[in-house]
Amino acid sequence: MRKTGGILCGVATVGLVLALNMKIGSLPPVGKLLNPFSGFWQNADPANENFSADLQNERLKGKVTVQLDERLVPHITATNDEDLYFVEGYLHARFRLWQMELQTHAAAGRLSEVMGKSMLEFDRKQRRKGMVFGAERSLKAMESVPVVKSMLDSYTAGVNAYIGTLKQKSLPLEYKLLDYVPEQWTNLKSALLLKYMADDLSGYTEDLELTNARKILDSVAFQTMYPERFDSNSPVIPVGTSFDYASPPQNSAALTPVAEPATTGNVNPDRYNNELGSNNWAVSGSKTASGKPILCNDPHLGLNLPALWYEIQLQAPGINSYGVSLPGAPGIVIGFNDSISWGFTNGYRDVKDFYAIQFTDGSRTKYMLDGKVTNATMKVETLVVRGQEPVLDTVAYTVFGPVLYDTTFSAKGLPAQNLAVAWMAHQITNELQSIYLLNRAKNYSEYTQAIRYFECPHQNMIYADVQGNIAIWSQGRFVHKTPGQGMFVMPGNTSENQWKSFLPFEVTPHAINPARGYLSSANEVNTDPSYPFWYNGYFHELRALRINHLLDSMKGITVEDMEHMQQDDYGQMAAYILPVMLRTTAGTAIAGQDMYKLLGGWDYKYTANTKAATVFELWSGAFHKNVWKDELGGDTTLLLKMPETEATMQLMLKDPQSRFYDDKTTPETETLQSLLVQSWNSIADTLKQLESADKLVWSRYKGTFIRHLARLPAFSSKVLEIGGGKGIINAASTNWGPSWRMVVHMTTPVQAFAVYPGGQSGNPGSKYYDDFIGDWASGKYYPLHFWANTAAGGKDVKYIMNFSK
Questions:
Q1: pTM flag (> 0.90)
Q2: What count of other Cβ atoms lies within 10 Å of the Cβ of residue 579?
Q3: Which tens digits make up the pLDDT trace of 451-464?
């Protein structure tokens, strides 16, 4: 809970904010900040604040009732769609405005406007990779569909209605600390938020690193270190599913040219965290105690305050849905209604390719394509920088896409070169139409009609309904690629390398009602090799193997079983390789025998209080680094990628005599045994130091906490005493993890249980800011109040907001 004391601590951290480059220049005007009538004091909500209100707005067509339950979850009942989304926008702004604006500023490459020149390179990259370019193109598609345009227009009007009520004293605290004010919301900002999520989930690519690695490795080393797919007998689509698709014609789905840039200027750099992922699964009635399906989802994303999600119920004629929404966009992203439930995991197909462009001169206005000089379209980006003059950056757009890197802008470890990027997020897509239809879908047919509009990012979409069906689609828009296309930087002087066509929706990998009685996904490979169309991606298999192993053996499944399974702490990697490590090193001269003996009796569970998990992670991590560092060479300036830990696991299990255990930089010949011993000895002192500092316990070593978006310690959580981690079903790591745990029982009426690590309010001075964190950490779920009408809340209604003209 955060009250006045927390806000005082927040003011004390302003100097730290400066050091962290979150505020550049002078401190906020002290008089304004400390003013008792309009400064930070005004942001401390009283513990008994009454959120009930009667509100009027001329835009509304009818009356809207919002019932807020004991957790401040709003249950909106409206008589029409326009009023429904107007009030959703109002509530998002009322409780999460600063978060909404920060994320869309980050997406648009506008953080320098608030935080100064330290964010300039970040903003340049956002502009250069075409964030606003893609958002504007998709917005045109959204606004071309009347119901979606109405949805956006109403939502935007609701956000601005709340902004219009703000005075200095009621500004969210972060605006006061950073000394700026919110601007008017627009439909483009909502489109930018969707591209922000697309960037987070599909912006990763290894083209540059793999291109460099291929130059310094022989073919055996390259395939061993960077296999296209890891061994898996548990793909998203069950083995044995028939893929009897006819090969689509070459131009089965025309691509939209991307040569023309957006007409206005364009949070994430191309970053990737292999802890980022998700789990979902659905079990059919044949495996449950009730005979009804159960659907589960826990998307693993950044653990932030304010929380990524905002819990909500939306009800109007034709819609009664409950779940989590993204503050900044209308609708419910993950959730259920009275007929179906749905959830997402990231699919991780590679949908971003690079092309080496051959410009004809230093102006970068013309480049070679198919033996001819071709004009690039030049776009001047104006970057407003707080405290200094605007910075102009010229970006060239080619037939492939914008030139992200050139001689004026490059990445660390990347030689200056001209690289254009083709990215699915540049294409004209309409994910909001998918959300609109998904919220209203009543059966499998309507679900499939809805998800066909969800094209970027690639998502594994799980489904269950009250009729007893379960299904999954590995959904997205995918290029019909030739084998190997897009794995490496491609020559940009020929249109032969350009994306030619998309695979049609009908050949998207999917399955319904399998004989085994369940479907699941956890960021693993989408299909077995029988799928007839080549694709590559960045897949991880360990959580999927554990999930499917558990579900294979379960019968009479209950909601409680599913809740426990979402918090499973079993380490599949450790179970595979620790026996090899111990067997290989048994009887050798190894330091720290007391620590070594901890591993012998370990059950491979990453519980909060275990020490063995920390010991294993340090030992296996040191060994992983020692196996591959000599293969990658000593050039620290070259952009390269360490192989995934699964590559090391496969090597240990398949080839105990491999040449890769030998360190080429030493005169000795290292073996699996000697390298394991060497790796253990290299961490022995670290283990002693951790033990003496009382930080060898897994939860303290891992240090999971929920971090404020502006990196303010006073507004972040403490370190949580919880288990889990990378490659584990309970994927809670330092700053990533289950951002929303949901279990939906498809009974009549539908029953659902969920929790997320945060609170409904974005105000650090509110008791609703972080009140779910303790329950999330302890594994508690809340029963969700899925009310049929405005009279259904009864005793669980704590506040009522009435909206009218």
A1: yes
A2: 12
A3: 999 999 999 999 99
